[in-house]
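U., I forgot to send this yesterday:
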Amino acid sequence: MSEHSVSLRSMALEVDIDNAQFSLRLLDQTLLPTQELWIQVDTNEQMIEAIKSLRVRGAPLIGVAAALMVAKLAVQGEGAEQLLVSAKKLYEARPTAVNLMICIDRMTKLIRESFSVDQVTSLALQIFREDVDLCDQIALNGASLIEDGDQILTHCNTGGLATAGVGTALGVIRKAHEQGKKIHVYIDETRPLLQGGRLTAWELKKLNIPCTLITDNMAAHLMSLKKITKAIVGSDRIAINGDFANKIGTYSVAVNCFYHQIPFIVAAPYTTVDVQCQSGLEIPIEQRPAKEVTGVSGSFGDVTWAPSGVTVYNPAFDVTPAKLVSYWVLDKAVFSKEKIDAGILKK
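Result:
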């Protein structure tokens, strides 16, 4: 391979390449915050299971991990035709996060046009490094919207656990903190999988950023008390009209912000913009297993609180319409409603 010795590290993903050896490890996010267990991923089936079970999660990081898996399979000897089959299975692992599709499309385009192990590996590593750079630019752009003294609400997890870099929405918060701005973060615990309580709180504690954990249904109450001055979230897919899909409950945050006249900000890289998607009505919404709502699982085991056989509706995401959004923070720039309405995301 052209890159004989490479080591890349993020908060939740590690890749080591030494001649013909390709090691890919993931931090098992289902066990956080009580256990920090790294798992070795050797097969496509393992990666697909990790994506579906949320051992690896966050739209940008899923795309990066899937691209690296394709490269690992190439190093292990899969030819072009088999790689395309494996890539298709990765592409279908989760339906809403468009970053996964975009990254796999880039890999498969290269495989079809001029396949070599070196080229496939180099592109996967490039995708990792690109995400780091995209996160840095998002953080810098978004921090310009954060003021000294802001009390910021966030939903789900959008930091280093969700990307190869510093994160999207949480990266903005991190950058503002590093700039010396005195901020406080209110963390929606984010039911039903508690990515806020388990993951965002874990990250913010590591970063020494002042924070308070709340249940999702406390947010409006805090807004009414003027305890929240801004809300910032990530995204799994943005339509060209500015509508976007994010973790279930994001729409509620946006509606509450709109009523209380609080700026509501979405932060994401260009890989989250689906230029084929005209509006949020076209975004497919993943349905998750009922057991995520009827109880909870983690390093502590399984707990069930609902009666056996109860009917469950468990969409992983909801869609927030553009009219509720104050700013879209992308790696290229911060966009206002006027820019979005003018079709800036089509370009």
